[in-house]
Every structure is written in C-alpha cells, then in structure tokens.
Amino acid sequence: MKKIGVFFSCLMIFCTLIVFNFTGEFSFAAQDNSLAASDIKVFLNGLELKFDVAPYIKNGRTMVPFRAIFEALGVDISWNGENRTIMATNDTTQIYIEIGKAFAYVNGYKVNLDAEAEILGGRTFVPLRFVSENTGADVSWDGSRRAVHISYVDQVRDLGEISYFRELEFTVDRWESKADGKILTVHGRVNLDDKMLMLEMYDSSRRYSSAIAQITGKDGGMNIYEADIYLTSSFNPKTILVKTLSDSNKPIKISQYDL
Length: 259
Known about the structure:
The protein is of the alpha+beta class. It folds into two domains: 41-151, Copper Amine Oxidase, Chain A, domain 1 (2-Layer Sandwich), CATH 3.30.457.10; 156-258, Immunoglobulin-like, CATH 2.60.40.2440. The protein has helices at residues 2-38, 66-72, 128-135; strands at residues 41-44, 47-49, 56-58, 61-65, 76-80, 85-89, 94-98, 103-106, 109-112, 118-120, 123-127, 138-142, 147-151, 156-157, 163-165, 168-178, 183-190, 198-203, 208-212, 214-219, 222-230, 237-245, 251-258. It starts with a helix and ends with a strand. Mean pLDDT is 83; it is low at 1-37. It comes from Acetivibrio mesophilus. This is Copper amine oxidase N-terminal domain-containing protein. Residues 44-150 form the Copper amine oxidase-like N-terminal domain. It holds the Pfam family Cu_amine_oxidN1.
C-alpha cells in the first residue's frame, strides 16, 4: 500500500508539472502572438489607418481587416450573417467571399486565396496579397518596420480632363466604335513615352476589356496615344480605368474616367 501511495503521489506531481508547463508555454505563445499582431501598421497613401482589431501574421501570411481597408478604398461592403459571406462592390468590381474558404469570386471569376478568410474579434480578415491583386492598388510589406503600405489613386475625371500620378500627366479624350462595334478605340494624351498605360473599359454589368496605349504622334509637349479594345459581344461602355505598372511591376489604378 505504501508503494501504491508513493506511486500516486509521484504521478500527481508529474501531472501538475505537465499542466504547469503546458499552461506556461500556451500563455507565452498567446502573449507573443498578441504583441506581434498589435504592432503591425497599415498606411494608405501615406496616412495610417486605425483598426479596432489589429492585423496579424498567420503561417507567414499578413492578414488584414477586409471591411476597413476596402471601405477606405471607396468600396461598399455588405455582410450576410446567415451564409457568413461578405460582398464588396464599386462601379467596376464585385467581390464575393465566404468565411472559411480559400477562394473568392471577383466579377464572377474564381480567385484562389493563399489563406482562408476568417473572423477574428468580429472582423473578417483576408490575406494582404488578395487586396493588392484585386483592387488595382500597389501594396507592399515593410518587414523591418512591420508596416503595410497601400498606394491607391481614386481620381474620377470627365473626358478631356488631365489626371496626375507622380511624374505622369495624361488624359482620356474620346472613344469611337469601329468594325461594327467590335473595336472601341480610345484616344488620349500622355506626357511620357516610356511609361506603360493600360486602359480597361467596363460596361454596366462590370464586364471589361483592355488594351495597351500606343503612341501615335505629338500634340505640343504631349504624346498622342490610341488603344484599340477588341470586343467579342455587344458592349455599352460606362467607365474607363487607367492603370500603369508600379515599381514592383504590378498593375495599379491611377485614374478613372466616367463616360
């Protein structure tokens, strides 16, 4: 009996040590993760965004709050609690995300995420990469300062108005239909001849087609360009987005012209 009592005493001490060690490690990990999350900052066009639930890193992926960032980019957000889905829409883009899924739908096309959308603190989080690839924004991660930098220009212009982006000056002046409506040619001006301009023309159903601007002549100190947009079906143009390549060679939106 004495041996049995000693055995159970040792067993209880051993279990206590295990529980203490497990609890201690778990608390430390949670605290460390919390600190890692709270010091990540997000800047939009140089201004810091504030969140009620902070961004964090999970499995090497930077996760950012979907609603706060997309609303800052001028996108309308709606939440369906029954289906646990979130919808983001503007004039040219419709994004559909379901919580717990590693994919989304952008303008009806399935797009894979490099991490599942998830809820933390009552907020939906998505991978930072998804934001950069589906908003036309230039998004970068500064690991040394633990900061996310988002550059996004939301200029809305009328035809003929000048837009500015860094050293660029450009316009979308007019468009015309050719080949029985199968080609839409966009005409405009740009001050630089070594900077790519990509034009995306959207209709009311958010369908779009795109083309690269080609320099065709001079107008004073500006280059004249044309862009032939080829269509495969009937198309009623509504909006033209102008994009260029960022320093990291990603397409970024630099202006919008409403037709």
